[in-house]
Amino acid sequence: MRRERCDMSEVEGGERGGAGGGDGAGDGVADAPPPFSDRVLENVLENVLQFLSSPRDRNAASLVCRSWYRAEAQTRRELFIGNCYAVSPRRATERFRCIRAVVLKGKPRFADFNLVPSNWGAHFHPWVSTMAAAYPWLEKLCLKRISVADGDLSLLAHSFPNFKELSLICCEGFGTAGLAIIAEKCRHLRVLDLIEDCVEDEEDETVDWISRFPGTTTSLESLGFDCVGSAVNFEALEALVARSPALRWLRVNHHVSVEQLRRLMARAPQLTHLGTGSFGSAAAAAPLLQGGGSSVEDLAWTFAASKSLVCLSGFRDVEPHYLPAIHPVCANLTSLNFSFAEVTAEELEPVIRRCHNLQNFWVLDTVGDEGLQAVAATCKDLRELKVFPLDPREDSEGSVSDVGLIAISEGCRKLRSILYFCQQMTNAAVITMSQNCQDLVVFRLCIMGRRRPDHWTGEPMDEGFGAIVMNCKKLRRLAVSGLLTDKAFAYIGEYGKLVRTLSVAFAGNSDLGLRYVLEGCNKLQKLEIRDSPFGDSALLSGLHHYYNMRFVWMSSCKLSPRGCKVVAQMLPLLVVEVIRDRDEDHDNEAVSKLYMYRSLAGSRNDAPSFVEIL
Amino acid sequence: MQKRVMEEDFRKGEGRPQLLDLIPNERDWMVKDVGVGGKCFGVSEEKKLELRLGLPGDEDWSSVKEKREEHSIESALSLGHYSKVSKTIGTNPSSVGAKRGFLDTVESKTEVFQQQQQQQPGFLQLQAKGKELSQKTNGRAEQQSLEKKACGSPAAHGSAAAPCGDGAGANNSSQTRTAPTPVVGWPPIRSFRRNLASISKPSLESQNGGPETAVKFKNGRKGLFVKINMDGIPIGRKVDLKAYDSYEKLSLVVDELFQGLLAAQRDPLTAGTQKNPEEKQAITGLLDGSGEYTLVYEDDEGDRMLVGDVPWDMFVSTAKRLRVLKSSELSASSLGAVSRKRTAT
């Protein structure tokens, strides 16, 4: 079933299936019109199009006509690939010749939770090798959930002499050796951000990569390595910070003690974003003032001197009596990440009540409902809240509940994004939030007990989530949990017209649930479902829409190979992957994991043996 | 359109003829359908939901009481829409069965009517309904165990509503495991956020953060990660053998890794309420056969061996994976033969 208007917008902008494709660039105009005036027109167009930056705008522009298509392709500077398998590297580089920055995303998000076997794919290598030839002037690279090897980093460092910014988010496969090559060879490096990566060293020794930065003044503006498990050479780090006058963002890992942090901060008083290491006296639990240890007052002085700080994170191994040290900067903070800090409400309160300007707050549920009430009382400008569980088990004792959610909704009316882990919730609280926080764009509620109902009424959580989609008219991302019947999905399908990302787990009663969503949510782009009773007929009800989506993930549902094959046959531009767990029978009737996505590249050739592409 | 009598906790023996309050009770409720179709969710200002705790003497709620009284919640828990939808859904019994009770939360001027499927004035009928529920809900009897948890957790007391009283749930139909054993990837927390509780406490007790940080942060020095599984626990772990230099340290780490999970397996209801790690039972005697569990490993030839026999360095170089077996099963399992049992991840 070929579609005329294949809106693969975030891939390449309106590539129609087969029509025009990559050969647009090569086509000359017809013979009749004089080439000169056309050339002038295209030049003018290029100058104008340079001002277009958003990929969606550019995709739209490229659809106007061939001339615009060519002009846009020549002037696009940033390439956004939402799914690395949706297009081949060669095709992308042939169309867009002048790219300076690339964003590349790989594995489905459920890979973060060990649902995707390792070696599934999303390798950086084919991309970096193609880009090495095609984009020698590449400056920026942002990779998310990509498998990156040290060799890839080496190729990167050697191929792009003007390389400036590297961000690796949720990536794996590389170690300190790769980092060392980046540090050494990328002489113009401004940004090296390692965010939630898995940095493992397979060789015998960890490499001292910090020492490999150029010995002269560097242009570093951002350095983040809080996810690196191995300690770095602190003297080298301190010296690096001292010779990096442009440094504004610094995030160290937990091996950096508070005393060491003070020294770094003294070297870089201009920092705006700081990620602390461990926030207690080095390793030992002995509190303060043992000859050489930092007192809280000393630390507070150091923080007070960092007048530009707007974002704090880290706080691993926090010792609560050190927390007052950050009081001097609280009033300026717009972002605070306490999600590794086990603090109680009492310990949080003196800090949070100074944070009038806070917009982003990540916290552990150890602060309890009371802590959230303190947040609600002060942080009137809060936009994003994430509450993580200290003990992420289904039956652990939860500290936050519907009470905290209600408090936040009443105090933080500008809330746009919330991620809330709890053990129990009520419809009433969710409904209240839907009424109070009309600006919500992201609502992710994770009731950790599977299929847990409203703990007051015993009812399903249908009404609560229904209220969210009804009242929060800007909602784009939704994650549901708790006991949910098909009715919840009926609400989502009916009211969630802007929803782009939907995450479902252990919910629904029948195929109808999924059907409601697929038939109703016409802006849906990313759908991830696990352990819900949706079967083939539900899957087939979305055929009209799958080409508009980035991906669909369904695991432990009620799909059969036959149903998936039908989808694959009906939609030839959809890659339908069936992923098997290692020990599974190959003749198993049920499909345990389905991952499907639109693609111009056809079936990938790097699929491992446990992936079957239908 | 009539208000129905809302039955309360029989144990308290307090019945009010016209119940206007929401009484939080972990048991099932009589819920009246708010019969205004169409407008739901706060559009109608008439529907006020005022929460009051009306269970005097129930100490578990007393502290929460003050907080809750302050929250006057406007909501239309309109189930009128539901009745339309459920009829649309038609014969799906689960959606009916899933709604185990009604919530009477509205004040007098709100009109209510009762949904026909749900005519349970009594606690006993709730019980019967609960059994219905268990049969109807797609065989997902694990709802019961989860309802059990939901009922049980706010206030620990004995049998809550009937569904809660029923025994352990059956499985998720697509995985042959028994609930509520941990499931892969649930709750959806990234691995570096797990084990925060077990990590930070030992480090405060001035251990040098060796074993657990090695496990947590995958310390890169000489990493040699092998999988380790424990009998009865579907989730396996990984340990970095090169982070330790003796069998004793390894044994300590194994204890730390699995203590929490083991406690959860043994007693799912109360394990979570223990705050101190010391209260959990330590796993000891792994090396000498004296404990309840014994540590074995699989070497590079596929043979299963007792841990502790060979010098440490030789062990590190030949061990491919570890397993914590019940000591009672040790003689039964043939050492020297590789077990091909599926190890859950």
From TrEMBL, chain A:
Task: Name a biological process GO annotation.
Answer: SCF-dependent proteasomal ubiquitin-dependent protein catabolic process
Source organism's superkingdom? Eukaryota
Q: What keywords sit in the KW lines?
A: Auxin signaling pathway, Nucleus, Ubl conjugation pathway
InterPro entries registered for this protein in UniProt: COI1_F-box (IPR041567), F-box-like_dom_sf (IPR036047), Leu-rich_rpt_Cys-con_subtyp (IPR006553), LRR_dom_sf (IPR032675), Transp_inhibit (IPR041101)
| Keyword Nucleus listed | yes
Question: What are the annotated GO cellular component locations?
Answer: nucleus; SCF ubiquitin ligase complex
Q: Can you give the residue ranges of the COI1 F-box domain?
A: 38-77
Could you tell me which residues belong to the region Disordered?
1-33
What spans are recorded as compositionally biased (Gly residues)?
Answer: 16-27
Its annotated pathway reads: Protein modification; protein ubiquitination
Tell me where it resides.
Answer: Nucleus
Domain (Transport inhibitor response): residue spans on this chain: 98-143
Reply yes or no: does the keyword Nucleus apply. Answer: yes
Write down the SMART domains for this protein, in alphabetical order.
Answer: LRR_CC (SM00367)
Q: How does it assemble?
A: Part of a SCF (SKP1-cullin-F-box) protein ligase complex. May interact with auxin and auxin-responsive proteins.
| PANTHER family tied to this protein | F-BOX/TPR REPEAT PROTEIN POF3, TRANSPORT INHIBITOR RESPONSE 1-LIKE PROTEIN
Q: What is this protein called?
A: Transport inhibitor response 1-like protein
Q: Which species is this record about? A: Elaeis guineensis var. tenera
- Identify the gene encoding this protein: LOC105058478
Automatic annotation (TrEMBL), chain B:
Q: Which Pfam families match?
A: AUX_IAA (PF02309)
InterPro entries with a match to the protein in the record:
AUX/IAA_dom, AUX_IAA, PB1-like
Biased composition of type Low complexity is found at: 151-164
Q: Which SUPFAM superfamilies match?
A: CAD & PB1 domains (SSF54277)
Q: Please give a single GO biological process term from the UniProt record.
A: regulation of DNA-templated transcription
- Where does it live in the cell? Nucleus
Region span, Disordered: 128-187
Composition bias (Polar residues) maps to: 135-144, 170-179
Query: What task does this protein carry out?
Result: Aux/IAA proteins are short-lived transcriptional factors that function as repressors of early auxin response genes at low auxin concentrations.
Q: Which PANTHER family match?
A: AUXIN-RESPONSIVE PROTEIN IAA17, AUXIN-RESPONSIVE PROTEIN IAA26
Membership in a protein family: Belongs to the Aux/IAA family.
Q: Assembly and partners?
A: Homodimers and heterodimers.
Q: What is this protein's name?
A: Auxin-responsive protein
- Identify the coding gene: LOC105040525
